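User: Hi! I'm working on a homework problem where we have to compare a predicted structure to a textbook description. Could you give me the structure for the chain below?
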Amino acid sequence: MTQPSISPEALAQAFHIAPLDIRSADERAGDLGFIPGSLHLHLPPDGPLHTLDDLGGLLQHAEAVALVCLSGRRALELQRRLPTLDGKPVLVLDGGMLAWTQRGLPVAGIPDPDASPHLPIPTPQSLFRALLACFSASATEAILDHDGDPELLEARALLQHAFITAGVDPEQPDPRHVPLLLDRLAFYSRTLGAPLDRIRDNIDNVIINIHAWKPA
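Assistant: Happy to help. Predicted structure tokens:
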């Protein structure tokens, strides 16, 4: 029986389908980068599935989940064990990240090494405020452009929920939590319909600033 799958082009337009990147952290941070707004959870095809609990309520607005790996092979193997997730059908991204990049679709996580930071972030608090402001702006624009779902109109509230799911206290932030929070904020922005290239730019700008940041 043919397993459900989705093409890169279709996934790029389907904001109601949540991309779940099952590659290792090293792969995701590698030369191919990752899909802007995708969630990351390392899930080897034959590994334990209890780590899925880390997703919490992140998939509440999704209609389906698309597993993403390098070529689609590992995703297909995992899909056989995981046909549904939180009651949502599980799809496989055809051809994985290789196919996504070959189509020239937006990729995050590989910013221009010559780019200069342009956000003032002298403290952890200002870094986290900049993160929230950055993604709030793009999410709000998306809602205004696309007449978003009424349940999603409280863009800032939804993005602030990213702090909760990432286990981050906005009043006492820890810079070590930035990668997970960035993952969550980008995912919610995609859910709200923000353009992938805008999400990519937000992610890469934050990465550039993190690399340049020197604690006060």
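For your comparison, note the following. The chain has eight helices and six strands. The chain has two domains: 5-102, 124-212. Good luck with the assignment!
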